[in-house]
Amino acid sequence: MSNAGAPPAVARCPPSWASRCGRWLEQNRLMAGALLTVVTLLVYSGAMANGFASDDHLQILQNPLVLNLHHWTHIFTNSVWSFRDPGKRVDFYRPLQIFSYWLVYRFAGPNPAAYHLIQLLLYCSTVVLVWRLGRELLVCELTAFVGALLWAVHPLHVEAVAWIACWPEVGFAFFYLLGFLLFLRAEHGMRNHVAKHCLAALAYFPALFFKESAVGFPIMILAYWYFQNSKWRWRNCCVRLAPYAAAITTSVLVRRVELGYFVPATRPAIASGITDTAALGLLGQHARLFFWPVNLSFARTFDLAASVHSLWPWITLFGVIMAFVGRKREPKLGFLISWWAIALMPCLNIHYLSVPILAERFSYLPSVGLCLAISYLFLERLPQSFQRFENLRYALPVPAVILCLWMVQTVRSIPAWRDDSTLAATSLKHSPRSASMHLARANSIELQPGQSEAAADEFKQAMQLNTESLSPLASIPYDAYLGLGRIAQRERKSGMAVGYFRMAAHILPNASPAYHALGASYFPRRDYATAACYFVQAVQRNPDDLIGRFFLGTCWMKLGKYREAAEEFASAAAADPTYREAYEAEVRALEAAGDWAGAAHVRNSLASVK
User: Fold this and answer.
1) What pTM does this model have?
2) Residue 68 C-alpha from the chain's centroid
């Protein structure tokens, strides 16, 4: 493979107006980057008015790993959802996502505007990276700039940018693109120094701890070499690929050590034929969403039969195959199309997907390839091939119209993420058979006056739709039974509430919320023995359940087990040294047990608690 440096980009731009624009962009790159940033900020400025939505409440406002100043080390030793179900094996090991929340919470607390601002600034930085990546891959400065603009305003990115829970998408894409940009610069240098590839691998490394799909980075490198149409020297390629393989190996070892496994042993029982068919259908549906981003929905449902019977999967598959087959004729266009397909591959295996199976955020990184491809096609390829397109008089309006339409659709879509009720209403309008959105709607109206019956109906409908889905989730009936139990409690139907909570515990026996709810059901009845049994199970499954520990300690106090009570209060205080009530309760428990010296020691510690 040739190591010669690439010639100046503008030198081979199409003539006349495009060439002049390219020269201006080359001479004013700082201003061009600022322009990209300003456009992105203006288009997404509406996100600053949005609050927390959907998983934001659980992952930030109800996550002890984020709320507790002293739990930050636990973030790197647990999966994303470990605080809710510690015993469950999940794929999601994303410590940099939760640690980012932890950092922001230290400075801004539960202020959603701070999270949205940081997420938006990171998105703006990624837009600039897309532009600089385009400059390395393509010929013309103008092509790279327009491609980055198209990517910045694409409506499919609204979910990733306007939803705080999508920090894994935004974070992983930033470091992925930064690593690939540095890789290209190492490739385009006069010599392929291993040190430059090590620097690129180091920049890429954080992406692996934001999202698991970053492991596909070496495949993207192989695709880039494939489309270079150069003679392969395997030994040289292996040396250059080694730093990236080392980064992935390190992340795998960290994951294996901290979680105790690499991939959960159990997978949904889905036939391989259905898996392959679903992959083809998903490929076509992702292409349709990219080119026709309308009726956007957070919980888009996936109809396997309808998707396969449409033309989209077959046209898309044909286009991807032709991109690989025609690499000598169109290497740039071929690689950009292959970028989209390769980056999308992890999102085509339904074994690894949760809800929804077809999500807009999955197109965040893949769309880089297609946006640059559209710009290249109309601003370089057509002007080079057809004389009438040479001055861009006919070619330029197409990406300009696409840019305007996407910009309008993006601005219209951002308010849907304002809060839970708005998100549920908007999503159900376009995806009426989404089990997760019926569950979200039930949670949003549950506490509204006079809405208990409507909320109960939504919970039941969510469970019904979940059973009819391609890959049912246990978490949906679990949360639905918890919701039905809460409604029954408020209606003073304690027996019915306990029944619902027990059904939830049967579905996910390793999750703590159902046991916590059962303990809280028996506590007001003064059945402290039964309540204590359930609180014991709750704190066993979630040691960070401070309220559960406090309730358990109170049960032991009522039962005269003062030593056991003091131990629970001490555990709560150790987990959260600012938990003043736990110290005070421990003092009372120790005094009741006759341990006056221990009580005095805790009282002295209490004096230092703010």
Assistant:
1) 0.86
2) 22
